[in-house]
Amino acid sequence: MAKGRMLQNRISKSQKLACLSNDTTRLLYTWLLSHLDINGNFYADPVMVNNLVFTRLGHSVKTIATSLDELAEKGLIIKYKINGEIYLNYPDFNEKQPALNPARETTPEIPNITQESILSQSGITPLQIKISKDKLNKDMAKKEALEISFAEFWEAYPRKVNKKEAKQKWFKAKLPDLAFILKALEIQKQTESWQKNKGKYIPHPTTWLNQERWEDETTIEIQEEPNGYQPPLEEILA
After folding, report:
1. Domain-by-domain residue ranges, the chain?
2. pTM (two decimals)
3. Is the pLDDT of residue 199 over 80?
4. According to the 3-state scheme, what is the secondary structure of the chain?
């Protein structure tokens, strides 16, 4: 589990939070957020919540139970039960945590929510659950695709410096098609500036990405064949 989660400033404009009966329930909702696993789940047992989330505030278990019930009734959390244990889920967790990185997360110890496990008092419909889980699957697929595409870029880039920083930039940047990037990279690798002095003037990969160097207009000096024929650039780079 991560050490914390993102709290967006739009939370102060939330109509659902504004309509809660007290600030204790609002605080519980925001503090719970930092304890959620990558699926947006946590324990819903009021004793555990009180001990793990409101550790030093001295609230009664009854107060925590009442707040959890209200959050469920308002649709801010979903309460579900698996193997006799009650858990909670934030239905919009993935939407509000766009920077989730499965590689940095531990394996969740809490079983994930299913439509069959939802308790009747939760104010969430099965359709909303499906939408939330579909989005999670889409986000996970996107991250996997970025992992694969970065690995191809890194393999092709001739100056392997600061891989971690380059990878972070790759995940955040608005990139063109991978094939376009690799083609631009191959062209630039043939230039005199990249080849001389053992690649001394090749930019760091993070710099190349930051400056969108795939857009550079590059000219390669090509020696003419004896008969004046010049092969197309695609043949040179093949």
Report:
1. 9-132, 157-237
2. 0.52
3. no
4. CCCCCCCCHHHHHCHHHHCCCCHHHHHHHHHHHCCCCCCCEEECCHHHHHHHCCCCCCCCHHHHHHHHHHHHHCCCCEEEEECCEEEEECCCHHHHCCCCCHHHCCCCCCCCCCHHHECCCCCCCHHHHHHHHHHHHHHHHHHHHHHHHHHHHHHHCCCCCCHHHHHHHHHHCCCCCHHHHHHHHHHHHCCHHHHHHHHCCCCCHHHHHHCCHHHCCCCCCCCCCCCCCCCCHHHHHC
